[in-house]
Amino acid sequence: MFAFILLTSFTSFKSGEIPVTFILVAVIFIGQQVVEGVFVRDNISNTSHILGGIVGSAIGYNLNKKG
């Protein structure tokens, strides 16, 4: 699900630019997962959330590249 959240940040952007929405979403959500992974013990794999975000970002960028 997190991959889709970051994937939607790339719905429209100009070639060679990174959308501001992506930067905000990535910093907030990935930062939250890193903090929870370090300080909170709750049987949730934060690493999988972080990797999902990376995968969603990469796919979104590659599918929407204009070239």
Give a structural overview.
This protein is mainly alpha-helical and about 70 residues long. The protein has one domain (about 1-65). It is about 65% helix and about 0% strand. The protein is built from three helices and no strands. It has helices at about 1-10, 20-40, 45-65. Helix 1 (about 1-10) runs parallel beside helix 3. The chain starts with a helix and ends with a helix.
Number of helices in the DSSP assignment:
3
Average residue-wise pLDDT:
78
Share of helix, binned:
55-70%
| Low-confidence region ranges | none
Coarse shape: elongated
- Record field, number of beta strands: 0
Ends apart, CA distance between termini? 28 Å
Main sheet record: none
Please give the radius of gyration in angstroms.
Answer: 13 Å
Q: How many domain modules?
A: 1
Beta-strand percent range: under 5%
Secondary-structure-derived class: mainly alpha
Order of helices and strands: HHH
The quaternary organization reads as single chain
Annotation keywords:
single chain, elongated
Short description:
The protein is mainly α and 67 residues long. 67% of the residues lie in helices and 0% in strands.
Please describe the topology of this protein.
Blueprint: H1 2-8, H2 20-39, H3 46-63
